[in-house]
Each structure stands twice: as structure tokens, then as C-alpha cells.
Fold this protein.
Amino acid sequence: MNRSLSEVDPQIVQIMLQDLDRLQNCLTLIPSENYVSRAVMQMQASVLTSKYAEGTPGARYYNGCAAADGVESLAIERAKQLFGVDHVNVQPHAGNLANMAAYQALLERGDTILSMRLDHGGHLSHGLPQNFSGQYYNIVSYGVDPETEQIDINMIAELAKAHQPKLIIVGGSAYPRWFDFAQWREVADSVGAYLMADIAHTAGLIAADVHPDPVPYCDVITTTTHKTLRGPRGAIVMCRDELAEAVDRAVFPGIQGGPFMHTIAAKAVAFKEAMEPAFKTYQSQVVKNAKALAEALIGNGFRLVSGGTDNHLMLIDLTATYKQLSGRQAADHLENAGIIVNKNTIPSDKRSATTTSGIRLGTPMITGRGMKEGEMQLIADLITETLEGRRSAGTKRGVREKVSDLCGQFPIYEDLNLWT
Ligand SMILES: *Cc1c(COP(=O)(O)O)cnc(C)c1O
């Protein structure tokens, strides 16, 4: 039982260390990922991984839950304080499941949901036909205005009037602009619908007050904990007191069994970190860096969807620059040069979701390394150089070296030493 990891399984450690090397030596611009703190990682690796704790604090189906109760109560209290909400369920294992629980708490099968189209920046859990959401519910989709590539609230109001949804979801995975939650509340009230915000991407920005706050306007709010919020993989559901019981019952026994207590403990650590002043400084730098990167890319001749960004992410429309280059190809070229981005559809994309005409970039990770506005011009130049010189192995090698240099100046996860 007490052998070290490297003694038990050096093979898996070796593979895992490849990813540590990638995290240290590549520029990761995936907006849905982040570097968690050493403290979060340590708690995620704790003895709590073995505990069964079905139920809620004080009302468990298993004995021996004193520590589990303590951990979960602390996580709940901190999340309530961090976001200023009435009630939080901290058990969902993932964002998809948080959304599944929210729908189950509010809806019957076949009810109508109004949500954002996937190719305009929505999420698969908002109604993709192959996802449970698209199979259990009647999905009506909204998109962005074709001219501004931003949400036009009047279009949302018209769709709501025509389709009378029971639930309206505001939020997405690739929308670079703010949502005006007060306007969405008015639309929901005009048709008597519930309003849910899915803040999976922007939770960290919201917690740090650098993005409008959905809490005063929404009935339910779901978020992952591992994106800008910088915690362990997982999710939470927040709601008003009136919906607390329905939400808790939807999570367990509705869709999950035993909660992951080690992850809930790591969520509690992340919520504590998110209440420290340094977190606010970090998030406001994430936004400043996103604006600086967007400006630099535009300066280098790229077209950004909606012309820029208000949050931590942006989308490059490659069709404006290159006729033949798909998002998938661009992302692969960049990976070869040490720059990790997502391929992503752009509004009304003519290519499929696996090929795409865009790439999605975000600043949470490069900001976590300590990079500031000055480095954003450099990164925009490295992206430009890679895509311009995509047919030259020498160019990629050259960029790779510059990426290594830059990463060396902004080290991350030095001396972690958790896996010996
Ligand atoms: C990432 C994301 C999710 C789902 O998270 P998983 O943990 O991958 O299931 C849900 N909604 C939105 C808007 C997201 O961006």
C-alpha cells in the first residue's frame, strides 16, 4: 500500500510527465482550460477519493461521513459567498451533468428550451441532437445577428414569443461578448419562462467582478469549476432557495450516485483561492490580455468574429485571410509550432464542426504564467508567422524555439514533485 507511484507504475508516470512538459513548454491558448494551483492538485489527490457519501451534508446514506460533511459544507458555504447566491449544489461531476440536473429540476420531457446554436457559440449540452439535451427536450435555437455577430435581444424576444419556451438558456462556449442578463430576464418574464445562465466559461470573470453578474436575474446558474474558475474538473448548480430541493434531488438520486468527495474538497480550495485579492488581479489581467491579443491579431490582418472581445476568448475567422485553410489545419500547424489552440466553427460556418473555419483563442493560461499585454503582441506575431509560413518546416522550427524561450521566461509548475 505504501509504495511510491514511480515504483508501482513508472510507465503511466512517464506518459503523464509528457503533459507536464507540454504545459510548461507550449503556449496554451485554449480558453476552456487552465493551470490549477498546487494546492488544488494536492487536495484532489487526497484520501477523500475513497469515501462514499450519497446524500447531502447531515443526510447521508452511508456512515462515516463526518469529514465528508465538513468538506462539502465548507465548499457550499464558500461557493455561496463567492457568487452571492442562495443555494449551491457542489456535487455535479461535469458541466454536462450540471445542466442535465438543472433541466431535470425545471422541466418535463418534451418541454421547449430556447438556447444558442452550437455553430454560433452554444454548447452541446444546450441541445445538440446527439446529446441527451437534444433527445429529451424540444430545442429552439437562437444565433447571433449576421451583421454584428453579436446577440440581438429583440431577435431573442421574437423567438421566445413565437415558441413559448419553458426555459431560456443564456451562455455559450465560444461567444466573445458580454451577456446583458437584465435584458434576458425581461424576455423570460415576457413569456413566463425560467432563465438559466450557463457561465461555464466566464465563472472566474464573474466571481472577480470583471463581467456582468447573472445572479440577480437568473433562476438557475450552472458552471464548470475547471475553466476560468481555475478549480478541479467538475461543476456546480446554483439557484434560488425555492428551487434548492428540486435541484438537489435532480443531482442525487436523479442523475448521479456517490459524489466525488476529493473533487468537492478541491473545489472548496479553489473557491477559497477565488476570494483572495490576487484572483481579481488575475482575472482582470485575463481580460486585458484578451483585448491586447485581439488588437494585435487585428493589427496583423486577421478578422475576429464580432470584431473583438469583451471576455477571455476570441475567434479568428480564417476565411477572411486564407481561402483553403480550415480551422483544423490551422490548429495542427500551430500545435507543430508549440502553440495549442482549438478549432472552432464561426457563425454560419460552411465547414463541419470537425473541420471548421475558425480557431478559438483564450488568455487564462498564458495570464496564469504571468504574461501581460507586451507578450500578447509577441504571441500574435508567432501565430501570424506560423500560419503564413505553414508550408515551411523551418518556420515552424523557428517559432517553436521562440515559444520555448518565451515559456522559459514565464515558468509554471516548477518543482511540483508530486509524483515521485
Ligand atoms: C464546457 C462547457 C460545459 C460542459 O462541461 P463538461 O465538464 O465538459 O461537461 C457546459 N456548458 C458550457 C457553456 C461549456 O462551455
Summary: The domain at 42-274 is CATH 3.40.640.10 (Aspartate Aminotransferase; domain 2). The first strand starts at residue 27 and ends at 28. The CA atoms of residues 166 and 192 lie 7 Å apart.
